[in-house]
Structure of Lipase domain-containing protein:
Amino acid sequence: MNNYNTKTTMLLKLSIVTLIGILGTEAFLFWSPSAQQFNTKFNLYTRRNPVLEQSIIHPDGKGNLTNFNNSLVTKFVMHGWDAPQGLGLSLESIKNEWLNAGDYNVFIVDWSQGNRLLSYDQSKSRLDLNKVHIVGHSLGAHIAGLTGKAFNGRIGRITGLDPAGPGFNGKPSTEKLSPSDAQFVDAIHTDAVPLIGLGIAENSGHVDFYPNGGNLHQPGCYINRITEVVDNGLSAAVACNHLRAYDYYVASINTNNPKGVATQCSNFVSYLANWCNVDAMDNNVAHAIMGEQAILSKPYANSTIGHKYYLTTTISYPYFRG
């Protein structure tokens, strides 16, 4: 666990500085850790280049971002600490759905390989932070949050996909994804089981969604965890529930799909029993849409914060019942 925490802290520092280099107003940002260093690659996709990326690679900042348009909304999606096999397809799916839905700058952030981080020349991009949306999975959600803190919450939106729990449960808000990190923060919790889940059990945003209770019973992920750990290792046992947040988010981007309408409730059992007392609430607070359209709850964020939103899903795409 100590080795995990050390590596996690190091990656947090590296990745936050890297994102600040992309988002910030300074021409150069430097950070040179004494421990092992990671490369970070920013792959840009737009409607002009939806398949073949343009990339900036640290540490030298060399690359080609000629298709970047600073008048557009810019979206980042990033994986967590140990990206399992097949995760690239999830990142690609989010990118493809975004570009089908709108004209965006889309960055897929990849730190899975590499060497070191030193600097990045940001002077040409000059991003409008109001038009920035960062989506992070697992550890990537907290990296997004800590990046948001560095900009005093001025980033437009941060979405946490099953924000990591180990090492973050019980930590102060200054050390993990929290509502103050952006103008609007939403989170989807799919593996939020104390002790054995990889997701955080605590609320992380202005609106927090707990599909199917947010625990290890995501439809289509019914496995015996103990047996699976013994037979195939920990990653195989937890990957489905932890990664299901990606699947839900991908499905939510396509406006032709049913919407993932969630209801504010005290707990999942009460939700299933229809004991949520929604009649006493404003409809805009009683319900929220999970995924891309969660932003519709932004005007009511002061009333949704601190509460949990529940819904059930089906076992396969498009997951939502509408």
Remarks:
- The two ends are 42 Å apart (CA to CA).
- The longest strand covers residues 105-110.
- DSSP finds eight helices and twelve strands in the chain.
- The CA atoms of residues 216 and 222 lie 8 Å apart.
